[in-house]
Amino acid sequence: MPKRVGMEVSIGASEAVRLANVDAIAAYPITPQTHIVEHLSEFVANGELDAEFIPVESEHSAMSVCCGTSAAGARTFTCTSSQGLALMSEIVFIASAMQLPIVMILANRSLSGPLSIWNDHTDVMLVRDCGWIQAFGENGQEIFDLTLCAFKIAEDHRVLLPFMVNMDGFILSHVIEPIEILDQETVDSFLPVYNPLYRLDPDNPVTMGAFAMPDLYTETKKAQDERLKASLPVIEEIWEEYGKLTGRTYHPVETYKAEGAKTLFVTMGSFGETASTAVDAMREDGEPVGLCKIRLWRPFPFQAFHEAVKGVETLIVIDRATSYGGPGGPVAAEIRSALYTLDTPPKVVDFIAGLAGRDVAPGDYKAMYHRAQEKIASGDIAGYEIYGVRD
Amino acid sequence: MEKLNVYAVRLLPKYEAIAPGHRACQGCAEVLAVRLVGKALGRNTVVACATGCMEIISSPLPTTSWRVPWIHVAFENAAAVASGVEAGLKVLMRKGRIPKKKINILAMGGDGGTADIGLQALSGALERGHNFTYVCYDNEAYMNTGIQRSSSTPFGAATTTSPAGKVKPGQVTWKKNMPEIAVAHNIPYVATACPSYPFDLMEKVKRAAETEGPAYVHVFSVCPTGWRLTPDLAVRAGRLAVETGIFPLYEVVEGKYKLSVEIPKLRPVEDYLKIQGRFRHLTPDLIDKIQERINKDYNKLLAKIRFSEEMS
Questions:
Q1: How near does any CA of chain B get to the CA of A65, in Å?
Q2: Of A183, A333, B125, B187, whose CB count within 10 A is highest?
């Protein structure tokens, strides 16, 4: 029987990669991703994981090597953060266009400048439109579960897309949490050996990464968009299957105390836990608030989101990245767009908070709730407010 | 394949890794070199190709010229992609998921993709010791984007970003010595080659592929379009580059230098320069300056060869 063991979330994530029996790992060290690649290289060094560990000279090469191993037919994993993602971003976009089912954990960290190693979502928003499946985990267990599921989803022949598991840097990567680690037999029954549809094989030569002239480029992009959208039911199916196996079922959008709520906080990633605590306290005070957690960022689960916010008057979005001079944080901008077709959409108040590891405590949610009431009363809810700026 | 210093068509393998019908310019010596490399390696080969002329002429969707498995990801990462292919095939063979057999891993790029933007990825791959062959097809500028200068463009050459003007004589820097950078990685095999010496090129590529560990072959690839010479002179220009000593053919096996084509007396470099439009603006004093530099570099190479002979 699996049991819950206290461990650093990075170790839990590494355990998921080991249990997935990956064939190849290429990575370059960057804080706060380092503990994952350290543990994985230890597994390889001790013979606990039979994989090629390729210690590359940059993140750009990390993703390039991953394209090579994946195209060769190997189950492939990498892990990065912030500047590393920025450096590899050129190849991140190509990996999805080439349908290479690479799995990456992104230990979310702010982008320079100024330099900061701490947590927010500015890195992932840089590659929002890279064509990868992008999901967020809220705690250590979720990171473990989502990583295991990521391989099965990415490698499914109906999907064949790379998968990015977002794990808040430090807030998750460096904390010790109780995590239930599955045994190898259970994992093997869930996750079969990778069976590539195409691979670089001299007996069956294929050309990968051909270029497109204007007469075909649009068609390739349409196909890519269709493929990413079509992954949604497969993601739900595989999360369901995993739920039957473990009792933990994940959904593209999840709610907490949403019943009877007039206002929902909207979060992604580890903020969901603090927000739940804040909602508990505010409910005790009689405030009709709840929580909506977006787990799946791409493909965006429009239908599930509409259902989750049905009948709600106000959404308070906590964005963890800025779109300078733009319409709001990327999550709020997305949500406003998603609500546009509804006849009576809820009001959206956008706060940008928790940049570069700035703490957002339960009391801050309460403060944002009251600030949102003020904004609504004044009739000015356009744009966004950067919360908690020191005078 | 031991003593193939005499041209004989029947001794060439019939196999073509790159099919006819590609879109290279008339007289392109680079695609000629690619063809010879393909013949030398045979069908058990996987190619990782950098963005550039050879990628653009061979892979417009939905067609391909490649009869071997071929992958293109981006401009600066052919060596990294090849590292991944090598590691991926190795682990799958070790785990018994694909049959165990010798598969040649070839990474290829132009001089820009190798000596400039791809240098870091190449250095990393050479240092990590992947079992692969990197072939740089050096046509001495960014030809695919329209003849812009690279670090591999020779002194005095006019390109679109190093034009010969009233105060500047074209490229004002000396060609980066990429083979020496490869040698500095202490890899087991480095060679220079030129399709004007087809059997020498093929032998070297075969030797590179047979080498356990990383191998680097730097192929001088005459570009009639970019060098402003008529297509019928492409092969001739390659021979002149070797005969004038501006591009000597040599091998460095386990650190030991060996000249591949002995030139008892170097021809004056002017013979090579004067047939190319990119050098047409050069004045006698600049030609002398280039000649001096060639003499110096060639003697440096001969000294390394003598030293290697003395050491063995």
A1: 4
A2: B125
Q: How many helices and strands, by DSSP H and E, does chain B display?
A: 11, 8
CATH, domain B10-311, list 3.30.450.40, 3.30.70.660, 3.40.50.970, 3.30.450.20: 3.40.50.970
Q: How confident is the model at residue A39 (pLDDT cuts 50, 70, 90)?
A: very high
Amino acid at B226: G
Cβ–Cβ below 8 Å for A65 and B48:
no
**pLDDT given for residue A1 in this prediction:** 59
Per-position b or e across B64-76, b if 16+ CB within 10 A of its CB: bbbbbbbbbbbbb
Report pTM.
0.97
Q: How confident is the model at residue A299 (pLDDT cuts 50, 70, 90)?
A: very high
| CB–CB contact A207 B90 (8 Å) | no
CATH number of A253-386: 3.40.50.920
Low-confidence residues in chain B, pLDDT < 50: 1
Q: What are the pLDDT digits (tens) for A45-72?
A: 999 999 999 999 999 999 999 999 999 9
The answer to whether the Cβ–Cβ distance between B91 and A94 falls below 8 Å is no
Q: B71 to each of A154, B123, B230, how far by Cα in Å?
A: 20, 20, 32
Contacts of A57 in chain B (CB under 8 A): 120-121, 123-124, 127
Whether the CB-CB separation of A334 and A265 falls below 8 Å is answered with no
Neighbour tally for B231: CB within 10 Å: 14
